[in-house]
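ZP: hey, is the phenylalanine complex queued? I don't see it on the tracker
AM: it wasn't, my bad. submitting now with these inputs:
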Amino acid sequence: MSFVDVVKEDDPTNNVPDTIYSKIGLQLHRRDNHPLGILKNTIYDYFDKSFPGQFVKFDDLCPLVSTKQNFDDVLVPADHVSRSYNDTYYVDSQTVLRCHTSAHQAELLREGHRHFLVIGDVYRRDSIDSTHYPVFHQMEGFRVFSPDDWSGSGMDGTAYAATDLKKTLEGLATHLFGAVEMRWVDTYFPFTNPSFELEIYFQGDWLEVLGCGVTEQEILKSNGRTDHVAWAFGLGLERLAMVLFDIPDIRLFWSNDQRFTSQFSKGKLGVKFKPFSKFPPCYKDMSFWINDEFTENNLCEVVRGIAGDLVEEVKLIDNFTNKKGMTSHCYRIAYRSMERSLTDEEINDMQWNVREEVKSKLRVELR
Ligand code: PHE
């Protein structure tokens, strides 16, 4: 099994390290003075204004969900990568830390809701860089239509929902970013068809804002809405907040440093973050012969387990296979604190521990 090296020794179906457990319940999205809370409230304002009294909001649903909720209920295929222990945190074989807020679609439909927003922390095993962190926050939106809604429109239900979806989300993007250029890109999600991504042209780049689409009929049928159609969208709050507030590194969202937290206040979207100081990074390279079970996500878990938020990036800088068929990887680890200068001694200690654990837990051969 590819996850065997990073799971809790006493339970082979659990791959959640303490660094991740310690994030559960922090609920950054419920802090009104935090960039994520400010962004959440701004999106609420848009839906309250556009659909007065219609959208019910859930920002306190438990992130521990069943594999049925996270995958089966939203039609994620049995062999989809997101189900692997390499990509998702399993608490046991039947329970995961949700990897998307779509995990709540089915239960909320069954409870009878027709318009809802779900905001919460989501968890994904991933590589380490300035825009990826194993815990981040998503907002899910869902709207159900009944035949009465589209009957006079001259469109079928799917076309009607897709039109409404695009109009609604273009309005949201304008609400957040002002008059920006936008484009729709066709994509695939297991739970919607057709599926789209919305991109906006912002500060010289096309930025992916969200994924969305017209909900698969099967989801509606299984959850008490036969003959209805619906749309759904999901957006990542950090990605947008980094752009809107000029926040250069995703780890900053977790900072309790006053110099970060004091810069944001309720209702003020888009106040630009002023870096309090830029501390120098320190780079350490590490080469080893990989084995069949090696994955970059497992490596990153080991590094984060030791260095926590002091690791800024883990990057493959060299990679070759020798005549005997052995493959070598060289990774460059960047250590940098957002808050202070690191000493040589503590960096060397961390790197030494990383090397030891990489050797013992991932069973690779250091070079
Ligand atoms: N759940 C998707 C994701 O995490 C986003 C999404 C939500 C797409 C709803 C379509 C509809 O990437």
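AM: back. The CA atoms of residues 229 and 334 lie 48 Å apart.
ZP: great, adding it to the tracker
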